[in-house]
Amino acid sequence: MNSHLSRGPPTCQQEYWQRAEVAIGSDLHDSIIGPKKYRMCSPKACGGAFDAPHLDCRQTDPLPNSLLATILWMKKTLGHLAWAAISIGAAFFLAGIAVNRGEPVNSMWLVLAAVCTYLVGFRFYAKFIAVKVMALNDKRATPAERLRDGWDFEPTNKWIVFGHHFAAIAGPGPLVGPTLAAQFGYLPGALWIVIGCVLGGAVQDFVILFCSMRRDGKSLGQMAREEIGRVGGFTALLTVLFIMIILLAVVALVVVNALKGSPWGTFTIAATMPIALFMGIYLRYLRPGKVLECSVIGFVLVIASIFGGQMVADSATLAPWFTLSATGLAIATMIYGFVASVLPVWLFLAPRDYLSTFIKLGVVLMLGVGIILAHPPLALPALTRFTDGTGPIFAGKVFPFAFITIACGAISGFHSLISSGTTPKMIAREWTAWPVGYGAMLLEGFVAIMALIAACSLQPGVFFAVNSPAGVVGTTPAAATATISSWGFPVSASQMDSLAADVGEKSLYYRTGGAPSLALGMAHIFAKSGGGRAILGFWYHFAIMFEALFILTIIAAGTRVGRFMLQDLLGHAFPPLRRPNWMPGVLATSAVIIAAWGYFLYQGVRDPLGGINSLWPLFGIANQLLAAIALCVATTIFVKMHRSRYMWISGTPLVWLVVVCFTAGWEKIFSDQPRLGFLADAARLQNALDAGKVAAAKIAETRTQIFNDRLDAVVCGIFLALVLLILVDSVRIWYGILNGSRDARVEEAPFVISQLQPEEL
Amino acid sequence: MRAFLRVLWEVIREIADENAYQRHLRAHGRSHSGEEWRRFCDRRFARKYARAKCC
Questions:
Q1: CA dist A528 to A372, A380, A531, Å?
Q2: Which of A244, A255, A295, A346 to mutate to test the interface with B (most CBs of B within 10 A)?
Q3: ∠ at Cα A172 (A355, A597), nearest 5°?
Q4: Residues sharing a CB contact under 8 Å with residue A595, sequence separation 6 or more, in sequence order
Q5: What is the spatial distance between Cα A689 and Cα A702, in angstroms, rounded to a whole number?
Q6: Does a structural domain hold residue A590?
Q7: What's this model's pTM, rounded to 2 decimal places?
């Protein structure tokens, strides 16, 4: 704006600006005058007197100084009052859900607590980081402008980048994690999602996006290698590969547990595969480039498949074909993963990905609207008796296990891969990183809050009957309902049977993994918002289809990426493996990746405790440890930027994650309770074997269980060791820089002034 | 409201890669054809699906 004033001949416009600046300072344009009142004038229209778009004074008469000052005072005061009200609201609603005991809380308390806290975090904390630490500068050309290639690097409108980034970070994690953590009650999960997101998750996403943007869009692994060292880079790569394997196993287990014994759900999901193949051919040969048109057709077909699933479930001939056991579904999922990862991307994965992304965004929107319309009361208490570690869904006390069970939604290491992937290559102005990096994560946190509400709005007895494994509550409906009722959460077998009939299922017991209970909660909210119980079955299977569709897309894409990483790693020893189209290499490495996650999946399916008890904490620890690596990189960069006085911004969540993950990891390996500690469970089984207390038919299975427990302990130990390595390496660098013995050289791209014009966006 | 809907539409087109395809055509001075779309897809998908999808 000052450049307008200093150039060109004096005009009434310049005089106006000068007076305005005296009265209210240089933020005039943003803070007082909006484009609706004063149109923007292009340089051309002004006869070249000004070299940038500016306010067109011909649209209005200049205001007197006194009036300008009054407007400013009112605007500032109203702004302060509004933010004060939002801040007080945040504190009030948070306190409301925290102190309430005994009577049901309406879900709107959670919604308002989250919204107010997120607004305050976005406006004050994130802006503080952007100004004081990052020194974001819109005059600095971003990689999207400097390296523009029409492919990856392209300056893009900020809201489009926001939508694209949010679609990329939103996965099943923020839906499933809060549902599982609801076993502690709604309070621990709600507080962690709200506070963890503002101080941890959103900070991580924002800071990594900033770091990548200032480094030509480099990936987390590249930044770790350059800023911390080769050990850091290699460790990050290895950690990502291990996490991917556990992630694929655990999300596959969620799908398997949702579909076992359900011909309706299984048919619907099976039908999405020929639909995706049809979409692939349609898009490539019949109507090239018409992605939206193709996705609409795919959506209509998927909805038709839900109705088809109901007919299959009602058919005595067809239903048995689609009624699969957990083991059968696990094998089918592995075959699916293998085929999907070797088929051409355009034929299967890409059309499926388009479809699942649109359905995912649509369902999130529907859930938000549904919760506002239905605003259900939370039936689960603030805290349950299971905070002591005796929970049926997974073992472990509220600290640290609530904080690793909810990863995505509060803080997720996986987001750092997205924030250092496509997004930094699309950002046109540095300040856009603020809403995109920080804001999109807040929205994901809100999705997690909605999932928590959907789960907690179920009757507690129903919630535990659906999510508890037979190994904990008993193998018959009568035993299960008696056990759950004895915990103080009354539920009857007839109630469960009636609910199962309402949603078109034979049984809803022992469906561990979170997806079915989330689907039930969502179906109730959707049905309450319109349609009633008559269409509960449709909504339940719609929710199951939505969860399974994008989880299976993640499995296909993840297996493929895992294969690429393996090809890259093994290619050092056997160079032909590095050729992406060398079919023997493709098949062999795909098979290795499938075998790796398939083994853990099979282990989960066979686990009498439902698999989630051992696999979800492993996944949570791994995901949070990846976040710890990202925060190590961010802290190192802050220190190198001479911003060590602000290293607490990334250092605080880093310390918290290290404490949480190492406590959880230690307990998972060494706890003396067999349900919690892997080694204790292996010892218990070994003792039973040695004492001859295991039936002959079960000896082989017990030996496998012992091996699996020890394997899980080793995997958990490897995660901790890898992160310890990168943490020590980082601390060594920070110490060296802070005591002056090491050069603080940053690897930032040089400053280039932006030439981008607003009309280009 | 109109501006909001326009941005929403553009977000949807971006997710669908339709905007990226238009950029590709502009950047390389080409016009739309089935062959061009397939060339664009092969290159875009090779990069897009070399990255992990978020959990």
A1: 11, 18, 7
A2: A346
A3: 100
A4: none
A5: 8
A6: no
A7: 0.89
Q: How far apart are CA A386 and CA A100, in angstroms?
A: 18
* C-alpha A267, offset from chain centre: 28
Q: Containing domain of residue A23, as a range?
A: 2-63
Give A324-340 as a DSSP string: --HHHHHHHHHHHHHHH
**Chain B residues interacting with chain A (CB cutoff of 8 angstroms):** 7-8, 10-21, 23-24, 26-28, 32-34, 37-38, 41-55
Element (H, E) at A41: strand A40-41
Residues of A in contact with B47 (CB under 8 A): 151-152
Q: Tell me if B7 is assigned to some domain.
A: yes
Residue identified by tokens 């690429």 is: A564
Rounded mean pLDDT, A406-430: 92
A19 pLDDT higher than 80: no
Q: Above 90 in pLDDT, residue A758?
A: no
Q: Complex ipTM, two decimals?
A: 0.96
Compute the radius of gyration of chain B from its Cα atoms.
Answer: 14
User: Which residues have a Cβ under 8 Å from the Cβ of A425 and sit 6 or more positions away?
Assistant: A143, A144, A147, A152, A153, A154, A217
A239-257 pLDDT per residue, tens: 888 888 998 999 999 999 9
Domain, as residue range, for B28:
2-48
Do the domain assignments include residue B41?
yes
Cis before A274? omega within 30: no
Helix (H, G, I), strand (E, B) or coil at A118: helix
Contact B20/A288, CB-based, under 8 Å? no
Closest CA to A289 of A348, A346, A345: A346
A55, part of any domain? yes
Please give the single-letter amino acid code of residue A660. Answer: V
Instruction: State how far the Cα of A396 lies from the Cα of A390, in Å rounded to an integer.
Output: 7
User: Which of these, A54, A209, A226, lies nearest to A144 by C-alpha position?
Assistant: A209
- Long-range Cβ contact pairs of A317-321 (< 8 A, separation 24 or more): A318/A263, A318/A267, A319/A263, A320/A263, A321/A263
Distance from CA of B44 to the nearest CA of A (A): 8
For chain A, the domain total comes to 1
Give the C-alpha separation, A541 to A136, whole Å. Answer: 46
- The tokens for A652 are 């605080």
Please report which confidence band the pLDDT of residue A31 belongs to, taking 50, 70 and 90 as the band edges: very low
Position B36 in a domain: yes
Domain-located, residue A26 = yes
Instruction: Using the structure block, give the residue that is written with the tokens 């204790």.
Output: A680
3-state secondary structure of A140: strand
Say how far apart CA A405 and CA A412 lie, in whole Å.
Answer: 11
Residues of chain A with Cβ-Cβ distance to B55 below 8 Å are: 171-173, 247, 251, 407-408, 412, 414, 554, 619, 623
* Two tokens, residue A140: 């600095």
Tokens 């340089």, located at residue: A43
Average pLDDT in chain A:
89
CA-to-CA distance for A638 and A135, rounded, in angstroms? Answer: 12
- B16 in a domain, yes or no? yes
Within A53-123, strands assigned E span 54-55, 105-106
Matching residue, tokens 């959506």: A299
What is the spatial distance between Cα A289 and Cα A365, in angstroms, rounded to a whole number? 26
Residue A48 lies in a domain: yes
For chain A, what percent of residues have pLDDT higher than 90?
73
Domain count across chain B? 1
What tens digit of pLDDT does each residue of A307-357 get?
999 999 999 999 999 999 999 999 999 999 999 988 999 999 999 999 999
